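Feature request, filed as a ticket because there's no other form

It would be nice if the structure record came with a short human-readable summary line next to the tokens. Right now we just get the raw output. Example of a typical job, pasted below so the devs can see what we mean:
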Amino acid sequence: MIPVIRPVLGDEEAAAVAEVVRSGWVAQGPRVAAFEQAFADRMGAAHGVATSSCTTALHLALLLAGVGPGDDVVVPSLSFIATANAARYVGAEPVFADVDPTTGNLTAKTVEAVLTERTRAVIAVDQAGVPVDLDELRAVCDARGIPVVEDAACAAGSVYRGRPVGTGAEFAAWSFHPRKLLTTGEGGMLTLASEEVARRARRLREHGMSVSAADRHAGGTVVIEEYLETGFNFRMTDLQAALGLVQLTRLTGVVERRRDLAARYQRLLADVPGIHTVRDPLYGRTNYQSFWIVLPEDFPVGRDALLERLLAAGISGRRGIMAAHREPAYVTSASGRTADLPVTDRLTTRSLILPLFHEMTEEEQDRVVQVIATAAGR
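Raw output as currently delivered:
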């Protein structure tokens, strides 16, 4: 079976994790701190706060931005459901905005169309690694005092206007799930511009403690910690961080290999009429965390039927990016508003994700393209 993605893991990762096991300190500790610094440096961020997942990083970001009950948070429906869920975690209401038909990302126009007097934040997703035009969004939001949280879950290694995605963002949340280019098994990161906000984020992820468990044990003196506010257990382990430190050294090579494979897909699929493939936006470079295509309305078979054909040929595909507003949990929002999102509806219905992974061969790519071409009647 040709998988959708296969993480790049080797002996270096195994050795790094084994070293942590031998050290006896496997919870959040010195390797987490090292990974936070290394990741923040690589992404051009001032501070990094490791978390248990990107979802918990988004949750923290909204808390730190002061979002709470009665507030609105503008989000794309075209995203994994965690993006919308984060707003509900803090008692706010997600308000769905439509997306650009080419990038799958929010735009200034689509966000401005749904802003309300209750809007307290916007979560902008770098969809499948395609960088969102953050400067354009901030031009709309900054003037209104609305913070923009960048959901960069898929975007490690992508480039926005010549800089790593996330550079200079007030809040950016990252995922290290196995489907991402850089994995720690599970885990996430919140990168931040403010040192004061980063200190509070570190407290909140560890039950609100005034001093971390690692610092308390390393201090050499008796320390009686305080619990300054209600916090959470959103910690990453040193086992995961050790994995992440090795993975970070691979990132550049992994991105370049995926870009080469994506370019080859684009060349091969150019012969299939009407198919739209994900591409770089004019203002940046994607890491191709996922390679998605959009079928034209007159394609001879539907999206789900094409997925069945791929599966029958020993190829694992996935539906395209989900639309949260079509899921039972969000069909009607708490305020009774329903979403009118024509671009989102079309993309989620007509798109699918093709296999793309570091060790993918040209023969495997040819097999994928042949199934699509045959389905198209070529």
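Something like this underneath would help us a lot:
The mean pLDDT is 95.
The two ends are 24 Å apart (CA to CA).
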